[in-house]
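[step 3/7] inverse_fold.run input=structure_tokens len=296
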């Protein structure tokens, strides 16, 4: 009798293990946010809201003085999510360098931070198709005392450059010959401006729309954006970047639904209308570029 019970128990354990291995009887493998058998998208639709990660980076995603979450990435996602049946977005403020880790840990279910698509990030998250395309920029003290017009100039001059933690500009600077000792890592863009104002850095760098917005907010006539800045060429290619929302890699259903609605925004002209509200122009539209092409 005991032998019969033992055989039954073994069979149950083997069946349970097999189901767990192929995922058919557990979650659908579409995100940590979903309950058993329920995708992240389905759960968000059911509960009526989704939590998004952002880094308080103007003009991509930031909170206004009254606590309103906005920015180009946020407003594009807001329209798309509402059309997918998700009415509310709840923001989870995170340092830029911690956004991917926060997504993977389930602290939020997507990243709306205007994050650039690159091959390293593609190995960690699933990107939607790009919503904009932009270049880099630098700002210095008025008069540009060190005559900095490129990342190579920063490298050769020994200038201190402030850059936000986790930003792709760190890699660009390093590949342009800027020494680690020259790079001043700061938590966010406003801290970079503060470092330049206080003399802890000789130059700051970020994407062009972000730099324009931070200089406008600072209202400091002792600072200036370098108009003749030369775009970096890294590994033989221009670093003009493409930004997009990001999801957990298992959330393929969500990404596909998001992309379908994003394509409709492009076709109708609504995408450009949203971008223009945050200082972008038609020149910053992503064209026909896709996340698959950028991920390689």
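[step 3/7] decode complete -> sequence:
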């Amino acid at each position: 009798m005991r032998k019969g019970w033992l055989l039954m128990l073994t069979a149950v354990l083997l069946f349970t293990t097999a189901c767990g291995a192929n995922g058919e009887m557990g979650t659908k493998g579409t995100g940590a946010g979903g309950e058993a058998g329920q995708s992240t998208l389905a759960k968000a639709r059911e509960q009526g809201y989704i939590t998004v990660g952002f880094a308080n980076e103007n003009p991509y995603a930031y909170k206004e003085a009254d606590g309103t979450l906005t920015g180009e990435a946020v407003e594009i996602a807001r329209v798309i999510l509402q059309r997918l049946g998700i009415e509310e977005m709840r923001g989870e403020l995170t340092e830029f360098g911690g956004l991917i880790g926060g997504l993977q840990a389930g602290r939020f279910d997507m990243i709306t931070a205007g994050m650039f698509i690159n091959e390293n990030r593609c190995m960690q998250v699933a990107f939607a198709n790009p919503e904009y395309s932009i270049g880099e920029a630098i700002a210095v003290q008025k008069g540009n005392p060190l005559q900095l017009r490129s990342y190579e100039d920063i490298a050769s001059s020994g200038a201190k450059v402030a850059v936000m933690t986790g930003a792709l500009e760190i890699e660009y600077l390093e590949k342009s010959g800027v020494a680690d000792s020259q790079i001043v890592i700061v938590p966010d863009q406003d801290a970079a401006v503060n470092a330049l104002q206080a003399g802890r850095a000789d130059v700051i760098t970020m994407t062009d729309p972000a730099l324009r917005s931070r200089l406008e907010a600072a209202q400091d006539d002792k600072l200036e954006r370098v108009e003749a800045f030369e775009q970096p060429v890294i590994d033989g290619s221009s670093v003009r970047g493409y930004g997009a929302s990001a999801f957990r890699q298992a959330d393929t259903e969500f990404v596909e639904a998001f992309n379908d609605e994003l394509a409709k925004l492009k076709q109708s002209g609504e995408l450009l209308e949203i971008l223009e509200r945050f200082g972008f122009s038609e020149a910053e539209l992503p064209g026909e570029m896709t996340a698959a092409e950028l991920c390689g």
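[step 4/7] annotate
DSSP finds twelve helices and 15 strands in the chain.
Confidence is low (pLDDT under 50) at residues 1-34.
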